[in-house]
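Lecture notes, part 5. Sequence design as translation. It can be helpful to think of inverse folding as translation between two languages: the language of shapes and the language of residues. The source text, in structure tokens, appears below.
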């Protein structure tokens, strides 16, 4: 069993930056792939980024490529999402998720989810 808690969301103006953190507790975390997803009002949940347990392989949605960076620190059982050059279309609730094995871009493949953290970007 793994518990995930996101933090770092908030209000930011367009062009600004935020760093989200996701802390894991419970059973071993080191061999879990992690993903970040987001859901805006009236929209489907979508993949943002994902990372293997080693951190050697990553995936980014086209909409965030070059602006967002996913990383993890297994010693701290924490995954991060650095978000730069934010725009109002990035406004959403951001969720971290974990699964055994490799990462996946499909939210249905993830076994564990955090509660979400709100990110609001003003124009």
């Amino acid at each position: 069993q793994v518990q995930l808690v996101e933090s770092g969301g908030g209000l930011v103006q367009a062009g600004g930056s935020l760093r989200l953190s996701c802390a894991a507790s419970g059973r071993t975390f080191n061999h879990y792939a992690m993903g970040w997803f987001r859901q805006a009002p009236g929209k489907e949940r979508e993949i943002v980024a994902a990372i293997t347990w080693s951190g050697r392989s990553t995936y980014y949605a086209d909409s965030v490529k070059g602006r967002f960076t996913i990383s993890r620190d297994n010693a701290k059982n924490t995954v991060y999402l650095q978000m730069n050059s934010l725009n109002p279309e990035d406004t959403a609730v951001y969720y971290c998720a974990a699964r055994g094995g490799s990462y996946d871009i499909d939210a249905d493949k993830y076994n564990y989810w955090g509660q979400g953290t709100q990110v609001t970007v003003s124009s």
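The translated text above is only one of many valid answers, since several sequences can fold into similar shapes. The longest strand covers residues 18-26.
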